[in-house]
Amino acid sequence: MPELPEVESLKRLLARSIIGRTIVSARINEPRLRRAVAADFAAAVSGRRIEKLRRRAKYLIIDLSGGVSLLGHLGMSGSLTYRDARFVPDKFDARHDHIQFQLDDGNALVYNDPRRFGLLKLLPTVELESSVELAALGPEPIGDSFDAAYLAKTARGRKAAIKNLLMDQRVVAGIGNIYAAEILFRAGVRPTRRAGRLKRIELERIVEATAPILRAAIDGRGTTFRTYRDSSGRPGDFVTRLQVYGRAGEPCYTCSTTIRSTTVGQRSSFYCPTCQR
DNA sequence: CTTACATCCTGATTGC
DNA sequence: TGCAATCAGGATGTAA
Prior knowledge:
Layout: H1 4-18, E1 23-28, H2 41-45, E2 50-56, E3 59-64, E4 68-73, E5 79-84, E6 97-103, E7 107-112, E8 119-124, H3 148-155, H4 162-167, H5 177-187, H6 200-219, E9 260-264, E10 267-271
The protein binds a DNA duplex (16 and 16 nucleotides) through loops.
C-alpha cells in the first residue's frame, strides 16, 4: 500500500533513470483508472522531456517540458516501473499494464495497477497547487508545519479516533494505515483514542514519532515497495521493522504482550495494549 | 463542520 | 477439491 515513504522511494529510484528522457509516445491500454484517463492524454505527453520528479503527500509529480506536469497516485496497487517495454517482471501481470510511455532510450515507463484505484492526469504545472487533488492537502509530516501546536489546534473538539485524524490527508498529508499504526505505537497512544481527548504531551509524542518512522521507512525503501526494475518483487526492507502492523496475535517486541487488532474507521488497526494507552 | 459509511477494483485468503 | 464469501484499502461522494 503506497504511502509517503513508498512514493518517496519510487521518486528517488525513478529519477535516476528517467530525468532527461523524452517521451517518444504513449500507449493507453486501459483508460479506466479511478478517473478515466483523458482521450488526448497520449498525444499531449508525446514529445515532452521529463524535467523533474517531485512528491506531495502520496502523489508523484512528473514535470514535463512545455509547462505541463503528470500527477500520479498509485492508489492501492499501482506501480510505475522503468523497464524494457517487451519485458514484464514476474510480479506484474501484463493485463494490468494500463499505460506505457515509450522513452527515447529504448525503455518504457509503465503504469501497472490491478485494482485501478490509481490516478494519472496531465495538467499545466501552474495549476497543480489548485487542483482538486492537491488543493486541500494538509502539511507534509516531515519538514513542514506539522508540529504539536498545529496538531493540538486541529484535534481540539474532534471526536474522531486519533488514527483517523492521522490518516486524514487534510490534517497531515501522506500517512496511511500502516504508518499511522507504527507512529501511534512509537508514541504509546492507542489508535482508538478520541483525538480531542488527548493530552498535550501525547500529541507531542505523536508528532515526535512521525518523522523518525517515515524516515526509517524511506531509508528502507518503504514497506511494500517493489523495486522498479527488479522482477523478484522483493518487498521494501521496512516490512521487517514493523512493530505492530499485521502482527495481531504475535508478541510485542518491547513487552511481549500479544498484539491486538481492532477496527477503527472501517480499517484494520493494530496496537499493543500494554505499550499504548 | 464533523462523522459515518458505501463505492470503486481485483487478487489473496478464508470458509464451507 | 471447488467455489463463494470475505478482506484489503486511498480517496471521494453522499447522507445524517
